[in-house]
Design a protein that fits this description.
D-tyrosyl-trna(Tyr) Deacylase, Chain: A, 8 strands, EC 3.1.1.-, cytoplasm, D-tyrosyl-tRNA(Tyr) deacylase activity
């Protein structure tokens, strides 16, 4: 499982030129899933995501987490995070999770995050989406379950 987390001032996702999800201050999270992922891995990744202290406190230090700043989440499924670019110039996506399993895990992540964060917006699994964002910093973090869940 891979999360690309961007601290944003605002972000939105559109499908067919219609906004289907939007947030103000918070995290835009791109989620890549593979067939080896489990609910246990998802729980560890969600815990790390929700407790990342990357918002500035009153002294300008990155010391506050999403809950401390009443932040919001926009979570987008993105199978391309499992692109294999080792050979040739056309990426292979065979390491990405099969759609039915990946969607089940994606829905689980949305449900679990909603238990902690009041506003969790999301895209539409498998749809062609257009993402707009204002990256605050910029501040981008990569979480990989191969490193987080050892």
């Amino acid at each position: 499982m891979k999360f690309i987390i961007q601290r944003v001032s605002n972000a939105s996702v559109s499908v067919d030129q219609k906004v289907v999800g939007e947030i103000g201050n918070g995290f835009l999270v791109f989620v890549g899933l593979c067939d080896l992922d489990t609910y246990e891995i998802a729980d560890k990744m969600i815990g790390k995501l929700l407790n990342l202290r990357i918002f500035s406190d009153e002294n300008g230090k990155t010391n506050l987490d999403l809950k401390n700043v009443n932040g919001e989440l926009l979570i987008i499924s993105q199978f391309t995070l499992y692109a294999d670019c080792r050979k040739g110039n056309r990426p292979s996506f065979t390491k990405a999770g099969k759609p039915e399993f990946a969607n089940e895990m994606y829905e689980y992540i949305l449900k679990e995050c909603s238990k902690e964060i009041p506003h969790v917006a999301h895209g539409i699994f498998g749809a062609h989406m257009e993402i707009s964002l204002v990256n605050d910093g910029p501040f981008t973090i990569v979480l990989d379950s191969d490193e987080i869940c050892k």
